[in-house]
Design brief:
Chain lengths: 114, 155, 525
């Protein structure tokens, strides 16, 4: 049960993220939702390589050689970097939309349909 | 522009942040961290200066075109370092264990951490550090640029 | 010697050249605009040359592998790795290189077209940087044999294309479209990453061949089902199949002309990912009949709903975008029939032919839909509106654009002697043997497509002269001409395309065992 706790956390974080991304009206909150999903996925990746009592996989002055798996951590780092780029881009879209529309309400940002 | 206390603190902290960021980049192949993290720390220094002094002042010190050029140079260094190994394969670590710069062989297992190892990896870390400094710096500068415009138009 | 070196390293160079070009663009544009334009075109021409070299290699010597960072470029299993491919491996089979050929050709046409189409816009150096990054993303997705690497290239591609959709701000409307597109892409990308995490947790590998091999050995678990559902649904969403198509008209409609044409190949990169997952990764373990019917149903829905939505549009680019959804349906239908019959005797009777039809339609549609978007961009470039009701009489002054549009419209409607006819005929014939109703729906959709394009042609080019405009500049015509050349070539001589591109691609895609043994069987050919 305790071992599954991290996966339950992952599921909760992702579901909250989905809720924010799909049902919130404010564009910034939608971006926050995307960020939450990303954090959930990153947590999932890191937890895949975890083993109990393992140390960080770095040989420099390591106290023991019982380490967690480094590959998922590398994947997570890559994913975080991509996430930074995505979030920055989405937020700058929000900035531009606010400049032209004067609002961030998703119900009012719909000139495309006209 | 913030008060004199904040500006003095920023002046004091700025070199420390730079050194810490440089440390993280340089030790990327030995400790947690590396190019992206170190570059992000250095970019925090840019953000600190931009918050402590107003955007109008910072704009004259830090040019956006120069940051873009920094970014391009970092990325080019990265990809060309990778390309130099193409006689074996792309991204081949052609510097490791050659005895040249960063070319010391690494002993297997736990070691105290030798800086002069890992071949092309530190070079790529520096390249990524330069790139992230440029990229995040440009992002910060553009966001600040927009803050000014919005307050002027007052939508 | 040098030839052999270039041929062996071409998978890496195809990615490296546009990457270097993209990063150097912002430096070179400080020298002069002209130098930058030549630099960008040169980079894509070189990429195209390397793609053709690799095409030749793959056609003659079979699937190629390229291992990044290894001491030898084809060392997939290093001696100390314990039989696991630990590095990032590019696996270039006939299907991958077929897709790469399509993508690089459209990108080349798009960039030549952009030279004069965008020359009055601001921020052009960033435009070309992003355009090259978008090309890198597409090519990387098509060539890679590694799941995580696939995700990275997917994200590079999504970020670059979302930024390009927003390139012409257009009073914020383009940014609104780009915001939608970016949200959808990043949601899709994250779900792909989640599925990759599930697969990695079970099989301890990121290499597609290794994952497929171990999945076959241990059986198809419930977690695999979740991963498969996530991957297929999100990649179908990024390919613009029907229940998840809502971003397509907005994104295509608001992007600059050349970018709309390249977005078509971008969605097909996702479609390629979908096919690769269905056939290679899950094809051996999962129930291919269910998976095949999933693709068929998506395909039929996309075809029919796409074309009916297109009929009522008044914006020329939104209309074409809905047609793009509809044409994607043909590919899903053709390849879906192939997947549903995979491994049975029916596969050799008509399944392979259906797959060939679907894959042939993919390159055909990239060419003619690219051409149509470029002509739409040319019209907007000259008269400044995309509203069909405000157009008219352009045939008097823009003769070449009209001819190009006519060729594209006839090709999309499946009229001989253009290439759309060849692939649609293949799909009709083979799908009719599988299920006659599906084939009849496909034919009806084709007729509706013709009706829709007759309307566009009439309202844009016919009638009295309303605008006093000139023909578009030469580079734009050259860009359209490149795509027209392939449309006519594949229309008049479909055998050339079938023999050198399509049949090897369909055979390679339907042979997951060959793919796996090529990667896991050691480095030698």
């Amino acid at each position: 049960m305790l071992f599954n706790l991290v996966y339950i956390t992952v599921a909760i974080v992702i579901i909250i993220g989905f809720y924010a991304a799909l049902f919130k009206r404010n564009l910034i909150k939608i971006v926050i939702g995307i960020s939450l999903i990303e954090s959930g996925v990153n947590l999932f990746l890191v937890s895949l390589g975890y083993r109990e009592g393992g140390i960080a996989p770095i040989y420099t002055n390591a106290p023991s050689t019982y380490m967690v798996l480094p590959t998922p951590q590398a994947l997570t780092l890559t994913s975080i970097v991509i996430g930074v780029a995505t979030t920055a881009m989405l937020l700058s879209f929000c900035v531009v939309i606010y400049r032209y529309y004067g609002t961030l309400d998703a119900r009012k940002v719909r000139r495309l349909k006209e | 522009m913030m008060s004199k206390i904040v500006r003095t603190q920023a002046n004091f902290l700025y070199p420390l942040i730079m050194i810490f960021g440089f440390y993280i980049v340089a030790h990327g192949h030995l400790t947690p961290g590396g190019g992206f993290q170190g570059g992000a720390v250095i970019a925090t220094g840019v953000a600190l200066i931009a918050v402590a002094y107003s955007y109008k002042n910072v704009k004259t010190w830090i040019k956006k075109t120069r940051l873009t050029a920094t970014e391009a140079i970092g990325l080019l260094t990265f990809i060309i370092t990778a390309l130099l190994g193409i006689s074996r394969s792309f991204f081949y670590n052609w510097l490791a264990n050659t005895g040249l710069l960063f070319g010391q062989p690494v002993p297997y297992g736990i070691n105290p951490g030798y800086l002069n190892t890992a071949g092309t990896l530190p070079i790529m870390n520096f390249a990524v550090g330069i790139e992230v400094l440029g990229g995040l710096g440009v992002i910060i500068m553009y966001y600040l640029h927009y803050i000014k415009e919005v307050s002027k138009n007052a939508v | 010697m040098i030839w052999e070196f270039l041929a062996n390293n071409s998978p890496a160079l195809i990615i490296a050249i546009p990457l270097i070009a993209a990063f150097a663009t912002s430096l070179i544009s400080r020298v002069s605009t002209r130098a930058r334009n030549i630099w960008v075109i040169l980079a894509l021409v070189l990429t195209e040359i390397f793609v053709i070299i690799l095409l030749y290699q793959v056609f003659n010597f079979g699937t190629k592998v390229y291992v990044f960072g290894a001491s030898s470029y084809n060392l997939t299993l290093p001696p100390d790795s314990g039989g696991i491919p630990i590095r990032i491996i590019f696996v270039v089979d006939a299907m991958s290189i077929f897709m790469a050929f399509t993508a690089s050709t459209v990108a080349l046409a798009g960039v030549i077209y952009s030279i004069s189409c965008e020359n009055e816009q601001t921020g052009q150096d960033k435009y070309y940087t992003l355009l090259l990054l978008m090309t890198v993303g597409m090519l990387g997705m098509m060539l890679t044999g590694d799941l995580f690497n696939f995700f990275v290239f997917l994200e590079i591609n999504s970020l670059a294309s979302a930024a390009l959709v927003a390139y012409r701000v257009d009073r914020g409307i383009a940014v609104e479209a780009a915001f939608k597109y970016a949200i959808i892409s990043s949601l899709g990308g994250l779900m792909v990453l989640f599925a990759i995490g599930i697969l990695y947790g079970q099989y301890d590998a990121l290499n597609m061949a290794m994952v497929a091999y171990r999945m076959q050995a241990t059986g198809f678990s419930n977690l695999d089902k979740i991963a498969m559902a996530l991957l297929t649904v999100t990649l179908a969403m990024k390919a613009g199949a029907i229940p998840m198509h809502f971003w397509v008209p907005d994104g295509y409609g608001k992007a600059p002309g050349a970018i709309s044409a390249m977005l078509v190949t971008t969605t097909y990169a996702s479609l390629y990912g979908l096919f690769r997952m269905c056939f290679t990764v899950f094809g051996l373990a999962a129930n291919t009949v269910t998976l095949g019917w999933f693709l068929i149903i998506l395909g039929v829905l996309s075809m029919f709903v796409g074309v009916t939505m297109a009929l009522v549009q008044h914006d020329i680019k939104r209309l074409m975008a809905y047609h793009s959804v509809s044409q994607t349906g043909y590919m899903l239908l053709g390849v879906g029939v192939g997947l549903a019959t995979l491994g049975t005797t029916a596969f050799n009777q008509y399944g392979l032919a259906a797959m060939e039809g679907g894959i042939f339609h993919l390159i055909n549609n990239s060419m003619y839909k690219g051409l149509l978007f470029l002509t739409a961009g040319a019209i907007i470039y000259r008269i400044g509106t995309s509203d069909l009701d405000k157009m008219g009489g352009l045939g008097h002054s823009m003769k070449y654009t009209m001819i190009f549009f006519m060729i594209g419209a006839l090709a999309i409607a499946g009229i001989p002697p253009f290439n759309g006819f060849a692939s649609k005929l293949l799909i009709y014939e083979s799908v009719y043997q599988f299920n006659p109703i599906l084939s009849i729906i496909a034919m009806i959709v084709s007729i509706l497509t013709l009706a829709s394009f007759v309307k566009v042609f009439h309202s844009a080019f016919m009638g009295p002269k309303r605008y006093d405009v000139k023909e578009v500049p030469l580079p734009m015509l050259v860009g359209m001409g490149i795509l027209t050349f392939f449309i006519i070539l594949f229309g008049l001589f479909p055998n050339i395309a079938m023999q050198y591109l399509v049949t090897p691609a369909a055979t390679a895609l339907s042979d997951p065992v060959g793919y796996i043994t090529r990667v896991l069987g050691g480095g030698s050919l």
